[in-house]
Design a protein that fits this description.
The chain is 48% helix and 7% strand. It is of the alpha+beta class. It starts with a strand and ends in a 7-residue tail after the last helix.
Length: 204
């Protein structure tokens, strides 16, 4: 398999999941700005949507969209319990979280990475995001992870998106559960390995 990624982008989520799953995968750097690979290949030829992540399977098929990619990876190694079994209510809870993160959090954060976005619009989105993250903080009360005590692919996605609060000046001060969650996931060997590879933390 190949994972096309961009440092710190939403592709960090499947990158972490790959480490959690113990699955071998070639990592291919794709610039979300130039839409080029390191060898000059046009990234649009890989994904016409121009976005990461892209998971290329051994037979050449490609899977896009983070929530789909991480569930596919989880289902390759059910013994790792990165996603509840298909058909169970718990699996739908996982999908519920993945949908919320992608539609309500991820897309709201994307405003800050849009060139030319007016500052007043950013201020509005910061306020809205604070409200949504405050709700997430409440949902994490008394739990280590979104589904309880077991780490899931939804946690990798929430961690990835929640990291963006620092770069976008979205205030998460006082959201103690969310801050503890970020620290908890950041300390996992999978997150450490992925972030080091992407240059997000310094190598020891």
């Amino acid at each position: 398999m190949k994972l096309y990624y961009s440092p710190g982008a939403c592709s960090l989520s499947p990158h972490i999941v790959l480490h959690e799953a113990g699955l071998p995968c070639e990592l291919v750097l794709a610039s979300t700005k130039t839409k080029k690979l390191e060898d000059g290949t046009d990234f649009y030829a890989i994904n016409p949507k121009g976005s990461v992540p892209v998971l290329e399977l051994d037979d050449g098929q490609r899977l896009t969209e983070g929530p789909a990619v991480v569930q596919y990876l989880a289902d390759l190694v059910p013994e790792r319990r990165l996603a509840p079994p298909a058909g169970t209510l718990e699996r739908y809870r996982l999908m519920e979280w993945l949908n919320f993160i992608t539609s309500e959090l991820h897309k709201s954060f994307s405003v800050f990475f849009t060139p030319g976005m007016p500052e007043d619009a950013k201020t509005l989105f910061r306020d809205k995001l604070r409200q949504k993250l405050q709700w997430v903080d409440g949902q994490l009360a008394g739990k280590s992870f979104l589904l309880g005590e077991d780490f899931s692919v939804a946690d990798a996605y929430l961690f990835t998106v929640a990291r963006w609060a620092d770069a976008t000046q979205v205030d998460i001060a006082g959201l103690a559960n969310l801050q503890a969650f970020r620290e908890r996931v950041s300390a996992r060997p999978s997150a450490q390995a992925a972030m080091k590879h992407e240059g997000l933390i310094k190598q020891a």
